[in-house]
Design a protein that fits this description.
Number of helices: 18
Helix content: 25-40%
Distance between the termini: 31 Å
Radius of gyration: 24 Å
Number of strands: 24
Structural class: alpha/beta
Shape: globular
């Protein structure tokens, strides 16, 4: 009997699985059984994330309960006073998010650990802040971020408000692996149960106050500058609207997308990476004559940007583009006001556009790069904070529409980002510059950059094997050229080595299943499996003295697929 069949039968025959769920299992076809049971749902770059439903490779009460048992053991092992410090739990708008929150609190309480919960949904960055504000020993965020509606997830945070980095999560994974299967997990309840405390508005008030404090030019004239905003049915609506109102912005919300709807009925996609997520917002912007559209993903940590261009049409930016402009705005304005550190640092990742580093360098700010996952950025902020010296944090961002302006949170923060994106666009509007003009001027200074991420989905056990084979080939025999252009450097993050000619360098970042190719014409291609979905991502970066058409990147991607035989 295969592992898939064994897992399936175990669920079908277990007295702990209710009859309604068993009927759902009986109605599955073989492909559905395979995808739901061929493995255990895993922790990836952003915690545990998966499709909702019965199965070992699904998010359900059993898999969430098992993860929480492991996390409870983890914090008790790490902190002698974990029970009193407590764990903060928050959630987004998705199906079962509130139920998973209450289940997580219940399990923690049964271990004697205090649980702090909110009265309703809150953004991921506020959860990160709340851990720090309450001096808790950790946090849990129930969210699937920008994934489709079928998903939910479980992110775990340390006492600094940062998601667990590999060195920390290793012990948690060991504890979870040592537990029985998700149906048979048992534990002894503490003699004194922990309590669940519903937080009052003090955390909200302080979080909003700190978000508002990051404004650089808060007194700009906000007349004749209408902004459309959508939270994509998610968590950012209440805090963001409060911030907009306090600072005097003229905001028109996309009302059809403001309710916390788990089915995302008002949008074709809640993901700022998907062009469909902008349709309703841009439609409203055109109707009301807005000059800017800002949106967050459902858990409020990523921000998408649309704008009225100089030709009268509405356009959007990628995460690389919008963040590079924001970085330039922040550093230039801080420099003007004498607020820029002589020893500043900007953080990004190995798949982020090279433009950000060039902008930072222009202002004398160093750049440190990390693997994908904002936890590495949050962890680095904490590292220098504990040292008591070192470079001052100026900005951190990922290509996937997430950035952090001020480190009172230790995760990417959409509420912070939205505020400064609005301020940036307003600042340039007062100079008569639409954002496409600002973007072009930036590229005239630093060279034209085009960075696009593509992906291919691999479902089920056969898909997993195909994905594994693809990455094995990339590690064993990386491309030496593509379309007649030579590869001059290979960075293999799994082997933790970089190869350039006859030289071999050590890579000091944690081991990761990523390969990055550098071409002699300055282009780069990075290949990595997604940490949150069954897909492989391909990041193509291009740079030129002249404007680059997206068709050039599309052509390169097609040639790459042919070369890799996929």
């Amino acid at each position: 009997m295969t592992l898939t069949e064994s897992n399936y039968q175990r669920w079908l025959n277990s007295p702990k699985v209710d009859e309604k769920t068993k009927q759902e299992l009986r109605n599955m076809n073989q492909a559905q059984i395979d995808d739901a049971f061929f493995k255990d749902v895993e922790f990836g770059t952003a915690g545990m994330r998966g499709v909702l439903g019965p199965g070992t490779n699904r998010l359900n009460d059993f898999t969430v309960r098992k993860a929480t048992v492991g996390y409870a053991q983890y914090v008790l092992e790490l902190f002698p006073n974990a029970k009193e410090m407590g764990v903060v739990i928050s959630h987004d708008n998705r199906h079962q998010s509130r139920e998973f929150t209450l289940l997580t609190a219940k399990v923690l309480n049964e271990f004697g650990i205090k649980a702090y919960i909110f009265d309703a949904l809150r953004p991921t960055p506020e959860l990160s802040f709340a851990v720090r504000y309450l001096k808790a020993c950790g946090g849990v965020m129930i969210t699937a971020s920008h994934n489709p509606k079928e998903y939910n997830g479980y992110k775990v945070y340390d006492e600094t408000g940062c998601q667990l980095v590999p060195d920390k999560i290793k012990r948690l994974l060991e504890l979870i692996a040592a537990l029985p299967n998700e149906l048979d997990v048992e534990y002894k309840k503490a003699d004194k149960l922990g309590e669940t405390i519903v937080l009052d508005n003090k955390v909200d008030d302080e979080y909003v106050r700190l978000c508002e404090s990051i404004a650089i030019n808060k007194d700009l004239d906000k007349s004749n500058f209408k902004i459309v905003f959508t939270p994509n049915h998610g968590t950012s609506y209440v805090p963001s609207m409060r911030i907009f109102k306090d600072l005097g912005y003229d905001i028109v919300p996309v009302l059809s997308q403001c309710t916390p709807d788990p089915d995302f009925s008002g949008t074709l996609s809640p993901n700022p990476e998907d062009p469909r997520s902008y349709i309703e917002g841009l439609k409203l912007a055109k109707e009301v004559g807005a000059k800017l559209l800002v949106m967050t993903d459902p858990d409020g940590d990523r921000v998408g940007l649309g704008y009225l261009a100089s030709d009268g049409t509405y356009q959007t930016f990628t995460g690389n583009q919008s963040a590079a402009m924001l970085l330039d705005y922040i550093l230039s304005e801080r420099k003007k006001k004498g607020l820029l550190s002589d020893n500043g640092v900007m953080y990004n990742t190995i798949v982020t556009s090279s433009l950000g580093k060039e902008v930072a360098s222009y202002y004398g700010v160093k750049t440190e790069q990390f693997l994908t996952g904002f936890k590495f950025i949050g962890n680095r902020i904490d590292y220098y904070e504990k040292q008591g010296h070192g470079p001052k944090f100026e900005f951190g961002y990922e290509e996937s529409y997430g950035c952090l302006v001020a480190p009172f949170a230790r995760d990417k923060d959409g509420c912070q980002a939205i505020l400064l994106y609005c301020e940036m666009a307003l600042f340039y509007d007062k100079q008569g510059k639409p954002l496409d003009v600002v973007w072009d001027e930036l590229q005239q200074r630093f060279g034209y950059h085009l960075d696009i991420a593509y992906s291919i989905e691999f479902k089920g056990s056969t898909g997993q094997q195909a994905m594994d084979n693809l990455m094995d080939d990339m590690h064993k025999a990386p491309l030496k050229e593509l379309s007649g252009v030579k590869v001059v450097r290979v960075e293999d993050y799994y082997k933790q080595e970089a190869y350039e000619g006859n030289k071999v360098e050590k890579i000091t970042l944690p081991k990761s299943n990523v390969v990055k190719l550098f071409f002699e014409n300055g282009n780069t291609i990075t290949v990595r499996p997604s940490g949150t979905e069954p897909k492989v991502k391909f990041y193509i970066g291009m740079k030129s003295k002249n404007k680059i058409d997206k068709a050039q990147a599309d052509k390169l991607y097609e040639e790459l697929k042919k070369a890799l035989k996929i």
